[in-house]
Amino acid sequence: MNALLWGFWLVVVIAIAVWAFGSQKRRRQKALEQAGPLSDEDRGFLDDHFDLWKKIPDELRRRIEPIIQVLVAEKNFEACGGLEEVTREMKVVVMAQAALLLVGRDHRLFSKLRTVLVYPDAFSGGREEDDDSVRLGESWESGSVILSWRSVQRGGEDEKDGRNVVLHEFAHQLDQENRHADGLPQLENRNTIGKWAHAFSSAYEDFCRDLDERRKTVMDPYGASNPAEFFAVATETFFEKSKQLHRDYPQLYEQMKEYYGLDPLKW
Ligand SMILES: [Zn+2]
What we know:
Layout: H1 3-34, H2 40-49, H3 58-74, E1 76-79, H4 88-100, E2 115-119, E3 123-124, E4 134-135, E5 137-140, E6 144-148, H5 149-157, H6 165-178, H7 190-212, H8 227-240, H9 242-248, H10 250-260
Helix pairs in contact: 1-3, 2-4, 3-4, 4-6, 6-8, 8-9, 9-10
Bound molecules: zinc ion.
Residues 128, 168, 172, 229, 232 line the site of zinc ion.
């Protein structure tokens, strides 16, 4: 085949890819435009189980609500471990916290995620372990997030303890969108990647040193496991202990603020 023909096919393939990307984006925008606000009943669920919701400015809540609606409608939910069903209440409470990670960014509605599996309580075995060696949540590159409803409630109802299993697992989903979980989610450009890498690696080093020297840290020690866990734990801390994170790791805070397009310090 001659060079001209190769060139032609290359142009065709690129054009199809650009068109597919654009049409995905238009589909997402349309779904978000068509999704209405939450009902009063839904908002009541958030008042009951998502403390941070009360602090979020009204203007931001209005932008989050359609994202919650679309996530609830488009993702599959599976009741596991003896849970009878994943109720509307559970779906809204989980997705409201997840939507917080999207609202300030040019997002893709957690493009890899297909199914959220919900257990009634902690489940045993596996990677993400708490002190008592039971899993509270998991995020898989293959397209699923696993949560226990009890830990979702515990994480959401205390907005100041710096621990929130939904923010943690959905931060992994963002990290997994561009390839593997490595603490480097999809960023705008090379310049941003350079700043991110610098802020993250120096914060990670400081954090590990503080732990080695047995100093109290604002972030959960679990974040020292690897850069992917560090990003997930930093996300929980960013939303739940913004003041302390800003005080102890100002550069890291700035990067998180830029990435999420939000500034919880002002809430
Ligand atoms: Zn994790």
